[in-house]
Amino acid sequence: MRRLLFAGLIVAAMASLSEAMWAYVPLEALVQESELIVVGTLSGVSEFSSQGMDYGEGVILVEDVIWGQVTAGETLTLRWQNRTNVVCPRVDHSHAAGKKGIWLLTVKQDHEVNANYPGRFVELEERNKVAKALSKSVVCLITSDHWARANQPAPVSLIFRNPTDKPLEFPGIEVSGNNVMLSSDLELVLHHIDWRLDSDSRQKKVEPFANLVAILPSTQLAPLVVAPGDEHRIPLDLRRLFPLTAGQSYTLELKVKGHRRGNVVSMYATTEADEEEYPRRPAAAAAKSGKAKQEPSRALLILPGVAIFFALFTVHRRRRRT
């Protein structure tokens, strides 16, 4: 009986490897950080490898729209990528092919989307939970790239949503060229994160460029009024608002008086070495070149399972001795 139980534990441990390294992200946070929320089916999944990276893509046929600027009947190209020699965490949506469900998506560019977390594909039975989470997600920050790449813009969008059936009012904000004027009832907060320090002192607030960001009394800026079922998006370049240092990590948060606290966006300012080690995805044409899929090293696939096996084996032997 003990041997059967022991064997069962090993099988369970091996089966959970694919998601073992993912930190838990609640549904509400995923909904808040999604630009498109649709009911659809993934098909035409293909994969290829290039320069130490594994790439995958498929097409989502939109059957119903819960939120976002897309219509039923349209198709979206879903793309994902992983380091070839990394077993977990990995993004892999091939298991969802042919299965109708709810997709919580971020938009990379026109009709190209990402779902870079296992929980971004949700069963249809969870639709009411998704709708409830959406009703609370009125203030959001969205970025198309969590890497602020060297010598390039660091795009982030401030999004004010109205999932209700009445007009919704937010504090004013105006953008003119590189200058941003914010109502005193609205705060854009950037923190530098030094992971070498303890949790109480690793965050340090980064002040914006004083000549580009102005805070005005709320009475001096007209409020944003968002129509029912709509959203107002304000695209910004973080590099033009705050000093970012290469090789450093940051978090960005939007605080709006009178509304629930928004999500926190993490961002890393890359170095030239980072750009070489983590290349951008090749052009779409490369995916159609017929390049064979390179399998990850067998040793790398086996090692995590071996480690778990010996950990469980050690516990088993100790129990037998006692």
Write a structural description.
This protein is α+β, with helices and mostly antiparallel strands. The chain folds into 2 domains: about 25-135, OB fold (Dihydrolipoamide Acetyltransferase, E2P); about 140-275, Immunoglobulin-like, CATH 2.60.40. Helix content is about 20%, strand content about 40%. The chain has 7 helices and 19 strands. The chain has a 5-stranded mixed barrel. Helix 1 (about 1-15) packs antiparallel against helix 7 (about 300-320). The longest helix is centred in the last third of the chain and has 24 residues, at about 300-320. It is globular, with a radius of gyration of 23 Å.
Residue-averaged pLDDT, rounded? Answer: 82
Question: Helix-strand pattern, N to C?
Answer: HHEEEEEEHEEEEEEEEEEEHEEHHH
**Tertiary shape:** globular
Helix content: 10-25%
Output the CATH class name of the largest domain.
Mainly Beta
- Distance N terminus to C terminus? 17 Å
Q: Helix segment count?
A: 7
Major beta-sheet overview = 5 strands, mixed, barrel
Content of β-strand = 35-45%
**Order of adjacent strands in the largest pleated sheet:** 1-2-3-5-4
Protein structure class: alpha+beta
* Radius of gyration, CA atoms, in whole angstroms: 23 Å
Low-pLDDT parts are 1-20, 284-322
